[in-house]
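Aim 2 progress update. The chain analyzed this quarter is reproduced below.
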Amino acid sequence: MRIWVDADACPGVIKDILFRAAERTQTHLTLVANKRLSTPRSEFVRSIRVPAGFDVADNRIAELAEHGDLVVTADLPLAAEVVKKGCHALNPRGELYTEENIGECLAMRNLADELRSTGVETGGPASFSKRDRTVFANQLDRLLALQSSS
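Predicted C-alpha cells:
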C-alpha cells in the first residue's frame, strides 16, 4: 500500500499524522500539490509538485494510485475515481469513502451545488476540530493495521 495525499487543501495537522504513520509503518507516502511543500527528511515521504490548474493534482493522483492504495482527499470526485480503482479513500475528517457510500456522498454534494446555484445558503463545512483529527488518526491506524495483517 502507498498513501497518496491531495495536499493542496489537507490540514497541516493531518499531514503531521501521516508523516508519523509513514515512518512508524514504513509506508510510502506521497503528497501531491500545485505548490512547494515542506516534508520531513524520510525515505518514506516525498512530494510531487504539479502545475497549477483545475484538478491537476487530483488527476495526477488518480493516474498514479493503484488498487489497494490509500488516497487522502476531501475531493469527492477524486474519491469516487480511486474507489472505482479499488483504492481506499479517506477524507481529512476521518470519513472513509467506499463503493457503498460514495454515490450518496456525490449526490449530496451535487444537490448542495445545485441549491447554491439557485441562491440558497447551504453553509460550509464546520471548522476542523480536535475530534476530526482523532477520528482521522483512528481510521488511518485501522487501515494501516489491515494492510500489515494481509
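The chain has a mean pLDDT of 90. The first strand starts at residue 3 and ends at 6. These observations will guide the mutagenesis experiments scheduled for the next reporting period.
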